[in-house]
Design brief:
The protein is mostly helical. It has 20 helices and two strands. It has helices spanning 2-17, 25-38, 40-50, 69-87, 92-95, 98-115, 120-144, 148-174, 180-183, 194-213, 222-240, 244-261, 266-282, 284-292, 302-307, 316-334, 345-348, 376-408, 413-432, 442-478, and strands at residues 55-60, 63-67. A two-stranded antiparallel ribbon has the order 1-2. The chain starts with a helix and ends with a helix.
């Protein structure tokens, strides 16, 4: 070991003189491999802890990785798959769960559309990235979350890092309070813009509210005070993110919370949502006419920022979003079955723009993001089934979360409320997905798939145990 250490020091000294810094990562890589091999669950927690601080880094020209998160997820995925193939002990109850089946269907269809893609190399890289997001944070996490304490640890590992970034961002916000464009960028380099920053915070607000009131016995314990501080910082960050979609998503989740508490069935909730969408398209001309009368642009004044939500006449952000949606729909009309290929929108949409829909921030370079919709984007890139797969994953996960809440609330109110809080956290992203899509980034994929895995794990392990106990109790009563 001494000889190996000496050789490494000599080699590293030479590498540093030649400005080659990657050799310094060898000890950290060895430590990560040892951690993932011995305690896989700690590897998942490490990924959650590091993700908010991860920074995009150019590996080679045209390829970027989020460091250190994505290399850790690739390593985690390889070790996890090797262990599963070696031991063949993956829980079949998770594998047969409806949410898991829809996730597998979406991955399979992504593989098919990557093979028929306009740019196959782009699509297969996109598919690989989705695999190293989903494998650790959903497939592995669903088994790790068999222990409910791991769900709480996962949440707080990400939330603590997020709160630190909110604290730093808030300080920079107050020093630039009169410049809206600067305020949209103060969260860099950790989050690319204020929309990704805002939706991440929105996802963490409902569980934070749950953890704040989970212990009714000790009202002023140190744990309660720290949770209160984190909750206040999350709300502060949400407001100062100036992300209108994030604000709407939280208000929507609050409204759905009261609907769930009233006892409305999930099918009726989904039907009401579909009816609202149908009414919008049925009266689209009247709605667009009324929205066109609003000329309030984005502003650092919160009241004016709220008013600008419905401005589709002068607000550049809203106009550009409509332009991206219209371009995506034209792309879909040309290739409705398999689409243009996962991840290809930003490279091919330029020719589908129309001059009368361009905004002041429109570009043909494809450097300002994708289709800005978690529903319309897959429609253009993967055809009808791509969009259907997204709707199935979102809808079945939401229905599962509500079912877990209603199944457990009589016997285990704490876990029932925990399931509801994570479901509402996911719902904020489902609503936000109308206006943006971020599941191609680690910042959102880690909490999104982690929350989804938590809902599935509570359904499989807690509800299954509850049903088993109910059956055994019924048999005893019969005897």
């Amino acid at each position: 070991m001494l000889l190996v250490t000496l050789l490494f020091l000599v080699a590293n000294s030479y590498a540093l003189r030649r400005e080659f810094y990657y050799l310094c990562l060898v000890p950290l890589s060895g430590l990560a491999i040892l951690l993932f091999v011995r305690r896989l669950e700690f590897g998942l927690l490490a990924i959650a802890l590091f993700t908010p601080f991860a920074i995009d880094y150019d590996i080679v020209q045209g390829s970027r990785l989020s460091m250190p998160t994505e290399p850790l997820m690739v390593l985690f995925m390889l070790i996890f798959l090797f262990r599963v193939m070696l031991s063949r002990c993956y829980d079949k109850a998770i594998l047969r769960h409806p949410v898991t089946l829809t996730v597998l269907f979406s991955l399979l269809w992504m593989l098919v559309t990557s093979a028929t893609s306009e740019l196959p190399e782009v699509s297969f890289k996109y598919l690989l990235a989705r695999l190293w997001f989903v494998t650790p944070c959903f497939f592995a996490a669903a088994q790790i979350f068999k222990n409910p304490q791991r769900i709480t640890q996962f949440y707080w590992c990400y939330a603590i890092s997020l709160v630190v970034i909110i604290f730093m961002t808030t300080i920079k916000t107050f020093s630039n309070f009169s410049d809206l464009q600067t305020m949209h960028r103060v969260m860099k380099p950790f989050y690319n813009d204020h929309t990704a920053y805002g939706v991440t915070i929105a996802m963490f607000v409902p569980p934070a509210f749950f953890y704040l009131f989970e212990d009714q016995q000790r009202l002023w314990s140190w744990k309660r005070l720290l949770t209160l501080a984190a909750f206040v910082l999350l709300l502060t960050g949400l407001v100062l993110s100036y992300s209108r979609a994030a604000w709407i998503s939280v208000l929507g989740a609050v409204a759905v919370y009261f609907v769930i508490r009233m006892g409305m069935k999930v099918r009726w909730m989904l039907l009401c949502g579909a009816l609202a969408i149908g009414l919008f398209f049925g009266y689209q001309a009247d709605v667009m006419y009324q929205l066109g009368k609003n000329s309030q642009d984005s502003s650092y004044d919160i009241a004016d920022q709220i008013k600008s939500i419905s401005n589709i006449s002068t607000d550049a952000s809203n106009l550009e979003r409509l332009n991206r949606w219209a371009s995506a729909l034209r792309m879909f009309e040309e290739r409705p079955v398999t689409g243009w290929g996962p991840g290809t929108y930003q490279f091919v949409y330029a020719s589908y723009q129309r001059s009368y829909q361009l905004s002041t921030i429109s570009t043909n370079a494809g450097d300002l993001g994708n289709a800005h919709s978690e529903y319309i984007g897959p429609l253009s890139e993967q055809g009808v089934l791509g969009s259907v797969a997204v709707l199935l994953v979102f809808g079945i996960t939401f229905a599962t979360g509500v079912k877990v809440y209603r199944t457990l609330k009589a016997k285990d109110r704490r876990m029932a409320n925990l399931a509801l809080s994570f479901t509402l956290g996911l719902l904020t992203y489902y609503i936000h997905g109308i206006f943006n899509n971020f599941l191609d980034t680690d910042k959102l994929s880690v909490p999104f798939w982690g929350f989804t895995a938590a809902v599935v794990a509570m359904d499989v392990y807690l509800c299954r145990e509850e049903k088993k106990n109910a059956v055994e109790t019924g048999r005893k009563d019969v005897k």
